[in-house]
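Problem 12. The chain below contains 147 residues. Write out its predicted structure in token notation.
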Amino acid sequence: MNWFLAKSEPLVYSIDQLRKDGKTLWDGVVNPQAVKAIESMKPGDRVFLYHSGGQSEIVGIAEVLTAGRTDPNNEKSAVADLGFVSKLDTPTGLREIKESHLFDDFAAFWIVGGGGGELCRRACTRWAVAGADRRCRRTPYRGGGCL
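Solution.
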């Protein structure tokens, strides 16, 4: 299982909206590196949801429901279906992420985001292994709860 980081401004699409919807089509990504990352997503992979726009924190976890694929409406973009897994009890801020030093060897993240951003796969897997994924509420989705 791979881990990714998806960015969204909470006023555009929030973790609370994903919880209400249950699942969503993650689209609008045109950065070539992020498009490649989405295309590499497989069902069962996990995604940290990161709120930008002043919050700058990981707020929840989603699961990849369908393999990443080329966006049928834009051949330079990619899409994947994501399902709600959980909301973190305590969001993980950008400062805490930086202070963890788990990402020191990554010059930049490439988060898969609906308007651009950055994304990580190996680094997010490290973050998950370090326990960030255990800071969430249990939910009934897909057997529910954290890993």
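Discussion. The chain has one domain: 3-143. Students who got a different answer should revisit the alignment rule from Section 12.3.
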